[in-house]
Amino acid sequence: MSQVPRNFRLLEELEKGEKGLNGDGNVSYGLESPDDTYLSSWIGTIIGPGNDYPSKPPAVKFTSKINMGCVSGTGAIETKSFPLLKDWNPKTTIETILIELRREMGSSANKKLVQPPEGSNY
Amino acid sequence: MMLSKRIVKETQRLMSEPVPGISASPLNDNLRYFNVAISGPVESPFEGGVFHLELFLTDDYPMAAPKVRFLTKIYHPNIDKLGRICLDILKDKWSPALQIRTVLLSIQALLSAPNPDDPLANDVAEHWKSNEKDAIATARDWTKRYANTQ
């Protein structure tokens, strides 16, 4: 096998991370800045189960800036305004929460809101 | 790994008969890895700029397309923030009959003919479709800022 240059190796890893193909749904990774041409700064996320989870809902927070009904000024999802967390069922999974959040982003009330520039973070 | 005869031949021809406006030379320590420079085509918003790219021939070449991306920042609807290129011959339209030379020519042609209907950089494509004149001005500005050799 010939040696794959650093940049192309990292691009492959990035694509895997972007598509969520890393097999284990409990970790995710990507570039810190979307225009980091030399692919130098990465962010990895480990989803660690909280002590009370799943009997209590997890805390959910956006790191990308978003303008949306149930999201506070710090990016945190306000439990009281997000029914899935408010009426928490221990069978609900992280995946369900994310899918529901995505659905909420597309709701008619939220769709109209002007969004902060792409790439801005809390 | 031994370089195939084909890669050796292609490389020699790229060096001895370079395509106008394009240079490509392999790195000393990895002859499958090329430094590429493409001059912005005349009468395009990229005119006057020199754009650097990197190109890599995987072990599957020529059965698989070369991997190639821009290192110089460029404002173009088919090139994303990391320089990745949306071009059919680099994906499903690749054929082993194509060469490094034809790939680079196609990329040069893509600079002359941006295609906002098949975008990779969505925000740029939107800009291009909603206000082409303004998008072209931004592309010119980026060329001056990032691809200027002076």
UniProtKB/TrEMBL annotation, chain A:
<protein>
    <submittedName>
        <fullName>Ubiquitin-conjugating enzyme E2</fullName>
    </submittedName>
</protein>
<dbReference type="Pfam" id="PF00179">
    <property type="entry name" value="UQ_con"/>
</dbReference>
<feature type="domain" description="UBC core">
    <location>
        <begin position="1"/>
        <end position="122"/>
    </location>
</feature>
<dbReference type="InterPro" id="IPR000608">
    <property type="entry name" value="UBC"/>
</dbReference>
<dbReference type="InterPro" id="IPR016135">
    <property type="entry name" value="UBQ-conjugating_enzyme/RWD"/>
</dbReference>
UniProtKB/TrEMBL annotation, chain B:
<keyword id="KW-0547">Nucleotide-binding</keyword>
<keyword id="KW-0833">Ubl conjugation pathway</keyword>
<comment type="similarity">
    <text>Belongs to the ubiquitin-conjugating enzyme family.</text>
</comment>
<dbReference type="GO" id="GO:0005524">
    <property type="term" value="F:ATP binding"/>
</dbReference>
<protein>
    <recommendedName>
        <fullName>E2 ubiquitin-conjugating enzyme</fullName>
        <ecNumber>2.3.2.23</ecNumber>
    </recommendedName>
</protein>
<feature type="domain" description="UBC core">
    <location>
        <begin position="2"/>
        <end position="148"/>
    </location>
</feature>
<dbReference type="Pfam" id="PF00179">
    <property type="entry name" value="UQ_con"/>
</dbReference>
<dbReference type="GO" id="GO:0061631">
    <property type="term" value="F:ubiquitin conjugating enzyme activity"/>
</dbReference>
<dbReference type="InterPro" id="IPR016135">
    <property type="entry name" value="UBQ-conjugating_enzyme/RWD"/>
</dbReference>
<keyword id="KW-0067">ATP-binding</keyword>
<dbReference type="InterPro" id="IPR000608">
    <property type="entry name" value="UBC"/>
</dbReference>
<keyword id="KW-0808">Transferase</keyword>
<dbReference type="InterPro" id="IPR023313">
    <property type="entry name" value="UBQ-conjugating_AS"/>
</dbReference>
<feature type="active site" description="Glycyl thioester intermediate">
    <location>
        <position position="86"/>
    </location>
</feature>
